[in-house]
Specification:
The chain is α/β, with parallel strands linked by helices and 282 residues long. The protein contains eleven helices and eight strands. It has an eight-stranded parallel barrel with strand order 1-2-3-4-5-6-7-8, surrounded by seven helices.
């Protein structure tokens, strides 16, 4: 079964002009009608770091969740953010960005990798108390532009540490769009076989002409969870200055269906969401 994670938070967070709270909520409400597994809808982080997400709590109050089967995921960068997010029953998942790159970890969360792992453990304990689940994103999971060490073996070491903390969902993240299909397949194949009790996701950034080959590469490696954003909007504002777009969800859907997967999405609601995205992002 394929899990499609739609990420309006990732699509919006790097935009310089603030999107009105009501517009954010209207767009996410439309996405909730489509039938995605999860909506990565917002983040509880410093408004100084990501000003676009300063209204996440207000957006949440405006969401109509009664008819939707989609779950909600919010990104947090420290324990305080996790405690804020855990105040809301509507949120199912807390996502934490752990980096294989020491440079990017400090740039992204103002903490070392060692400190970040301690944060992951604390958040995991909080989630267990509240009945929530933590999703850990292994950023720079396919390469490193900062000169820090990188290897598939290093990825495996991080996964082992997260397994010891009983993390059940790990998303391998290509933060800057450098992943080659062969490496995508190799990384997922090794991790999926070594840790069958963990759900491994792909949070890839890509040019549109490379999306199909990257999805197929992930499938070959055993990945069944994919993150994307309609029309490929967004990218990580804490990475290199030139943002590489998210995987365009509509292209991933096309590829997955071509590969024979039944996604059970409401295509008419998807078309409406595509139309609405044009007014939100242009």
């Amino acid at each position: 079964m394929i899990q499609l994670i739609e990420c309006p938070r990732d699509a919006m967070q790097g935009l310089p002009d603030f999107i009105d709270t009501a517009i954010k909520a209207a767009y996410i409400n439309q996405l909730l009608e489509v039938g995605f597994h999860t909506i990565d809808f917002g983040s509880f982080v410093s408004p100084k770091a990501i000003p676009q997400m300063r209204d996440t709590a207000e957006v949440l109050e405006m969401l109509d969740l009664h008819k939707s089967k989609s779950k909600l995921l919010a990104i947090v960068a420290n324990v305080r953010g996790a405690e804020d997010a855990l105040q809301f029953e509507e949120i199912d998942y807390l996502g934490f960005p752990l980096s294989i790159s020491e440079t990017f970890q400090r740039r992204n969360t103002n903490a070392s990798i060692e400190q970040a792992l301690e944060t992951v453990e604390t958040i995991q304990n909080l989630c267990e108390v509240k009945g929530k689940e933590q999703v850990v994103y292994l950023s720079m999971g396919f390469g490193n532009p900062y000169g820090d060490p990188y290897s598939p073996e290093l990825v495996a070491e991080f996964v082992q540490k997260l397994d010891e903390l009983e993390i059940k969902i790990i998303s391998l993240s290509d933060t800057i769009g450098v992943a080659e299909p062969s490496l995508i397949t190799e990384l997922f194949k090794v991790q999926v076989e070594a840790f069958p009790h963990i759900t491994f996701g792909a949070h890839l950034h890509s040019r549109k002409d490379q999306i199909e080959e990257k999805v197929i590469a992930g499938l070959k490696g055993g990945c069944r969870r994919f993150d994307g954003a309609l029309q490929g909007f967004g990218g990580c504002p804490m990475a290199k200055d030139e943002l590489v777009g998210n995987m365009a969800t509509e292209k991933m859907i096309e590829t997955l269906e071509k590969e024979g997967f039944e996604l059970n999405l409401d295509k008419s609601e998807l078309r409406e969401a595509m139309k609405l995205s044009n007014s939100v992002f242009f």
